[in-house]
Target: Malonate decarboxylase, beta subunit
Amino acid sequence: MSDLNALLHSRSFVELGARQRVAALLDRGSLRELLDPFARIKSPWLEAQGIVAQADDGVVVAKGTLGGRPAVVAAIEGNFQGGSLGEVGGAKIAGALELAAEDNRNGIPTCAVLLLETGGVRLQEANLGLAAIAEVQAAIVELRQYRPVIGVVAGPVGCFGGMSIAAALCSHLLATREARLGLNGPQVIEQEAGIEEYDSRDRPFIWSLTGGEQRFACGLVDAYVADDAQAIRERLLGILEGPGDAPPRSRQYRRFLDLLGRVDTRPQADAAAVRALYQGDQP
Model:
């Protein structure tokens, strides 16, 4: 009965928009959005290509508190241009993280949460988007020296491209069952390697390799959480209470390079083989 009550009172995080996700996580009444849509700071590059720009460039950034602790939350709107990150949106995230690092240097222990619903760089902005993502990555590394930078990949877009590298740089990374995490998206892999190698329409196959459950089992994600806004918030609070002392994955590069060196690329990869490799069950 308790499980039924929990289900009846749950609120899907995946179904929320970026702004709603931010509001669901921060303490009630503490949210203050930075550069909201009324600031009219949007991409100057999309209109010239016949694309209607969005007033917040598809990125919501807010300051507030999480369990009474100062926090900054940045959420990418997956429904705008597939969650792709351009010059303006990337600058908003990087700037927020840099300000959080400055807060810490000034004695204000500010953490950060990144809600990553993104296909990576916005192709229409090319190198400008890549530069913005590089700034986000540098800002994550700087801030995590002081306070946790927690990434959340919920779905349905997933987290791909350069922002998947940003996700890997986070102090902690959470994923739901609906989430996907990978460097290249399914369509890109199919285009480059062929449908025999990777069928982008085979959803069970894709999720079996890049879905949240598989990524957690492989140690590429720190927590596997239910698609419930309150459950995700509680997990964030738990991390802030006791972040632990495990080094970020980017500092475990020797282990991951060793694992990559063991990969046999001749047979078609499957979920069981990949999981066995990461869990050390494969010679």
Summary: DSSP finds eleven helices and seven strands in the chain. Residues 2-245 form a domain with the 2-enoyl-CoA Hydratase; Chain A, domain 1 fold (CATH 3.90.226.10). The chain has one domain: 2-245. The two ends are 45 Å apart (CA to CA).
